[in-house]
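I am writing to request your help with a piece of structural work I have in hand. Here, with my thanks, is the record as I have it:
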Amino acid sequence: MFNCRRGWFFRVTRAATSLQRPEQRPRPLATRPAPRPRSQALGSLKCFLGALKMEITEMTGVSLKRGSLAVEDNDSVAPAEAAKRQKVSECCLTKGQDGLENDSPPSSENVPGLPEAVHTKEGKKDSAAQLDIEGEEEEDGLSEEGDEEEEAESFADMMKHGLTELDVGITKFVSSHQGFSGILKERYSDFVVHEIGKDGRISHLDDLSVPVDDEDPSEDVFTVLTDEEKQRLEELQLFKNKETSVAIEVVEDTKEKRTVIHQAIKSLYPGLETKTEDREGKKYIVAYHAAGQKALANPRKHSWPKSRGSYCHFVLYKENKDTMDAINVLSKYLRVKPNIFSYMGTKDKRAITVQEIAVLKITAQRLAHLNKCLMNFKLGNFSYQKSPLKLGELQGNHFTVVLRNITGTDDQVQQAMNSLKEIGFINYYGMQRFGTTAVPTYEVGRAILQNSWAEVMDLILKPRSGAEKGYLVRCREEWAKTKDPAAALRKLPVKRCVEGQLLRGLSKYGMKNIVSAFGIIPRNNRLMYIHSYQSYVWNNMVSKRIEEYGLKPVPGDLALKGATATYIEEDDVHSYSIHDVVMPLPGFDVIYPKHKISEAYREMLTADNLDIDNMRHKIRDYSLSGAYRKIIIRPQNVSWEVVAYDDPKIPLFNTDVDNLEGKPPPVFASEGKYRALKMDFSLPPSTYATMAIREVLKMDTSIKNQTQLNTTWLR
């Protein structure tokens, strides 16, 4: 028993501390300060708890019995809306920690995810060499020493609280095989996502060349300016000083040299114009603002060749960054606003992801130059197109997933993967749809639909059990004690979180106008609550449907013909399979099945004081039209292999960058200390990869359950 515990402790601490290994930790964009040494007085247990808490927060899976599936929500958000919310703090409602959803456009079926803020502690370190375009950052005001006690205590709390799959209606499996254990995302390189474009092709980074264009500036534009000149130009461009112009002396006065300097300033610092002046017999290039502060937001129209498409499309390869984080980094290095980028869907953070991005009037040459500046990013496959990318245009994502240290026999693995390939998995909404704290987001959504605004305010602001930052705990305590929004807001150094936004609204509009106060929160964040409630109802109803009727279509089920739902009649039931059956998310524009499950919908909504026949809300934004969702998803392009390995640090397959660098694929021995299952499969939009992996492993993917498994040895 002791050896078993020691062995598992090694697995957990190895996975937790793996974030500190150079090959895994996100490499900095600027030199990081040396980390502060931990106090020896913390003791080995507290160090372990801190490491394990970090592991869950950073979304690396470890498990004693079943793999801890810590992944990210990949719901799509509109670029403009996402740009507004790029600084939403980590204290927001939910940040996908235990499910990975395929990308999809916002709709009643698809809840916009919350992109991780650039200005978190890690983000600030990563952005040390970058310009602060917005010109304002909020510090959390907490020292590392001050947080250590809180982190350990919060982790202990999190062991006791939170949701399980049972709480959100995830109760059924479709196959009868025996489950087995494995570790997901022991390394973020064990989870690779390739976007499937609108043409059905899987995106790969396989070409770093730049399209030949006679009108592109020469490579000299990147080296002609000194570091001091670049700094002065950056400050001028971003209005960080009182200078109205910057003069650069032309030391070697030739027309060619002056032309290169003009090109360098105009291409590297959008919004600046240049002119040549004679001063005391010397030539100067003078840079100045042509159109005031708005110049930065709008790419220069007159400098872009008419024969070239307005959008540069490229494939972005990134490691351990979600899509909005990546775009924020690119925009800061390019010195442009994030909203000139477009994409078809967002991607997971703790993974290697490959997707197509489009940017307005930025040359492929400038983009390719970033490959020399940025770590953990690679840009390539450049082309000029007339149109941007649009959310929802993708056909899905292709996943390459490694489950390390599996315990299943070859026969168990074969049965599990054959079932996934032939039958599929229940298309449940994953756990991150419902939040990770003691107050589920669907409870807030239910209160909104009930028009119970005092309850909405209370659910968001009241003290709660579970893992939270110390300043959030103090804010909630102040609110419970005083009900003074201004006093509670003063406890929040990071005021862009949902709690901070609601408190600002209450300070502005007063306690008697909670609706307006709540309206200060960005629209997509508000809608997330009611979409969470829809998902909660859908999960429960699908579990009842499968329990009642099994995995075959029955008369009264619904199927889609085009975009219209129709009933399956008894005469043609044999024309359908379970993969054709859909279930509605509740709303005013859907129909319900004609069997027992219709009454189950009515009973569930009635119990929540909602009228299934009137899902329109007094406030139009909160009226639910509803949608339809397939109950069983069968992945495409499914393949797998079991490999043996001895070194847990080695990668088990090549990435696109490995292939570009000519690295040979790994060679596996016939026997090894460990075994891993390497899976490949494709999923359509709005499906959760963790629900597919749940079906293979037969496990509860909730943080609460995983935490209990991971801490069994402590008892």
